[in-house]
Design goal:
Blueprint lengths: L1 H6 L5 H18 L42 H11 L2 H9 L9
């Protein structure tokens, strides 16, 4: 076996655990973990399986505000209103974001 050849002796349990951990890490490296919205799902060779199980899911919350010294505060407010509009939320959902109406 490879490990026995490398170490020059029979691999013990801790070596096997380390070997298994490295194989797992290698397999995880080969899978893509990222935000769904950042994946190009139509790329050749990419198979989107689905979101991670709920116990591993971490929601990201985006916030928006207009700075006190903004040069165009009205335009900034209009842009924020647009980002929270049903039309913008539909576009976000179509691109993998779990967008929701603001509270």
């Amino acid at each position: 076996m490879l490990l026995e050849t490398y170490f020059g002796k029979r691999a013990d349990e801790s070596v096997w655990r380390s070997f298994d951990a490295m194989k797992t890490a290698s397999a995880l490296r080969e899978s893509m973990w990222g935000m769904i919205s950042e994946l190009y799902l139509n790329a050749p060779g990419v198979d989107y399986v689905g979101p991670v199980p709920a116990e591993f899911d971490q929601r990201l919350v985006f916030t928006a505000a207009v700075g006190a010294k903004a040069k165009e505060p009205q335009a900034a407010n209009e842009f924020i209103r647009y980002l929270t509009s049903p039309a913008a939320i539909a576009v976000m959902k179509a691109n993998g974001l779990d967008a929701q109406q603001p509270r």
